[in-house]
Inverse folding.
């Protein structure tokens, strides 16, 4: 079946603008994760959704970052008032309940000018 | 705080060589450990997952071992091929929702 998809694949924005990144997990996967991969910080966890439970937001770097997951499926990561240090590849992963392997999407490369 | 380190940072070998990639972690209270490969401009592909109760996992030419007590894992690649060229990442999962903490990665180049 289809894997995790993310859109857009590339996003260039100006400093101060808001951006929305989208993730479509594998159908039937209840767990969804957002990670960020940047040159200086490597790959780091941002936020986790599991079913209808409250998300774990412990990895979000500032209150400019937020995410939601509608209907237990599609997720949107929003970055408000983007800064140059937000430039990175944003990766989404999903996992089927009672299993351990996380499946990653191709990522969205965000460039903030 | 869990920290994951991978050595070497980069490795270049001729085709056909057997090689070992190393991963070390500071907190042995892990749930599992995964090895991924990442190709340029692509996402991550899961290669092997070892549960904390296991010692090793094998898939084709790949073998991953886990020694929780010493905080180490190795990924062994047999008879390397140019198609193995990629960045290899190890990641440890904590109990619970399994947030992954990633290592720094090893960039592998296998020349024909």
């Amino acid at each position: 079946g289809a894997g995790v998809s993310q859109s857009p694949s590339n996003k260039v924005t100006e400093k101060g603008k808001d951006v929305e990144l989208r993730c479509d997990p594998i159908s039937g996967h209840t767990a969804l994760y957002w990670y960020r991969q940047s040159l200086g910080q490597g790959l780091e966890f941002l936020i986790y959704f599991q079913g209808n439970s409250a998300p774990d937001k412990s990895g979000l770097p500032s209150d400019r970052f937020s995410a939601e997951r509608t209907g237990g499926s599609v997720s949107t990561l929003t970055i408000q008032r983007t800064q140059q240090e937000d430039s990175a590849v944003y990766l989404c992963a999903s996992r089927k309940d009672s299993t351990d392997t996380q499946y990653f999407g191709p990522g969205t490369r965000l460039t903030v000018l | 705080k869990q920290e994951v380190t991978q050595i070497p940072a980069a490795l270049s070998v001729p085709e056909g060589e057997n090689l070992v990639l190393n991963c070390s972690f500071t907190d042995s209270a892990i749930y599992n450990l995964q090895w991924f490969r990442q190709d340029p401009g692509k996402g991550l592909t899961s290669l092997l997952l070892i549960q904390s109760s296991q010692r090793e996992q094998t898939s084709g030419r790949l073998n991953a071992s886990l020694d929780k007590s010493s905080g180490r894992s190795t990924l062994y690649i047999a008879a390397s091929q140019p198609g193995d060229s990629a960045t290899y990442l190890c990641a440890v999962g904590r109990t619970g929702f399994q947030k992954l903490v990633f290592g720094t990665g090893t960039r592998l180049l296998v020349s024909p």
